[in-house]
Design brief:
Largest sheet: 6 strands, parallel
Helix content: 40-55%
Number of domains: 1
CATH superfamily: Decaprenyl diphosphate synthase-like
Bound molecules: farnesyl diphosphate
C-alpha cells in the first residue's frame, strides 16, 4: 500500500438515506451512521499514507430536502465539529471547510471558525468538510473576486490564469484530489469539486456510505494504484 497512495481523497458519502430506509429508520439515523463511517476513515487514513480527505457533507442543493432532514444534518455537523474540537487537543488532525458558510446558523459558523483556528498548525490528517458547497457556486465566487480586482484596476483580464483561479477557490492551498470515491453506485459528480477533480480518478462502489469500511478504503486505493494516469498525454512519453 505504501507506494503511490493518493495524498488527497475526496468522498461523496452517498446512500445514507437508503441505508436508513432498509432498516425502517429515520433518514437522519443514516446520516449519523455516515458520520461514524467518516470517523473510521479518519482513524485509518493517516497510517495508509493519505494526507487530505475532503467530504461532501451538505450541498447547495440539499436545502431542498425536508426541513426535518436539513435540521438533522445540521445537528450532526454541529455535534461532530464540537467533537472534533475536543479530540483535536489529543490528536494531530486539522479541519477546514469549503462552501459558502454564510448561510449556516451563526453559532455553527462560530464553531467551525474556532475549530479551524485551533487546529490550523496541526500536521496530521487534514479533513475538509464541504458545507453549503457547490462546485459551480465556488467557481462563481472565485470569478466574482477576480472580476472585482479587474474592476479596481489591480488585474488585467489576460493575467487570469488557471493557477489564479485555483488560488481563489475555497480549497486553496489544498492540492487537488487524485481520487474521488462515490458510494451507493451513482455515476455522477453532483457538483462536487468540479474544478479540482479535473484529472482525478473516480472509484464508485455499490456499498452505501454507512457500510463503508477501512477495507473498502484500501480497495479504493488499490484500484487507484492500478490505474494508468495520463493527464491527457501518453504514459510512454
Ligand atoms: C447523501 O446521502 C448524504 C448527505 C446528503 C449528507 C452527508 C452528511 C453526513 C454524513 C453528516 C456528517 C458529516 C460530517 C462531516 C460529520 P443521501 O441522503 O442522498 O442518501 P440516499 O441517496 O440513499 O437518499
Amino acid at each position: 500500500m505504501a507506494n503511490n497512495v493518493p495524498k488527497h481523497i475526496a468522498i461523496i458519502m452517498d446512500g445514507n438515506g437508503r441505508w436508513a430506509k432498509k432498516r425502517m429508520l429515520p433518514r437522519v439515523m443514516g446520516h449519523k451512521m455516515g458520520a461514524d463511517a467518516l470517523d473510521r476513515m479518519l482513524n485509518a487514513a493517516g497510517s495508509l499514507g493519505v494526507e487530505h480527505i475532503t467530504v461532501y457533507a451538505f450541498s447547495t442543493e440539499n436545502w431542498k430536502r425536508a426541513e426535518e432532514e436539513v435540521k438533522g444534518i445540521m445537528g450532526i455537523l454541529r455535534e461532530y465539529i464540537n467533537k472534533y474540537f475536543r479530540e483535536y487537543i489529543n490528536s494531530d488532525f486539522r479541519v477546514d471547510s469549503v462552501g459558502d458558510l454564510s448561510r449556516l446558523a451563526p453559532d455553527l459558523q462560530e464553531d467551525i471558525a474556532r475549530l479551524k483556528e485551533a487546529s490550523k498548525d496541526r500536521k496530521g490528517i487534514h479533513l475538509t468538510i464541504a458545507m453549503n458547497y457547490g462546485g459551480r457556486d465556488e467557481i462563481k465566487r472565485a470569478v466574482q473576486k477576480l472580476a472585482q480586482r479587474v474592476k479596481d484596476g489591480e488585474l488585467q483580464p489576460e493575467d487570469i490564469t488557471e493557477e489564479l483561479i485555483s488560488q481563489n477557490l475555497d480549497s486553496y492551498p489544498t492540492p487537488d484530489p487524485e481520487l474521488v470515491i462515490r458510494t451507493s453506485g451513482e455515476f455522477r459528480t453532483s457538483n462536487f469539486l468540479l474544478w479540482q477533480s479535473a484529472y482525478a480518478e473516480y472509484y464508485i462502489t455499490d456499498k452505501l456510505w454507512p457500510d463503508f469500511t477501512v477495507e473498502d478504503l484500501k480497495d479504493a486505493i488499490k484500484s487507484y494504484q492500478g490505474r494508468d494516469r495520463r493527464f491527457g498525454g501518453r504514459n510512454e512519453e
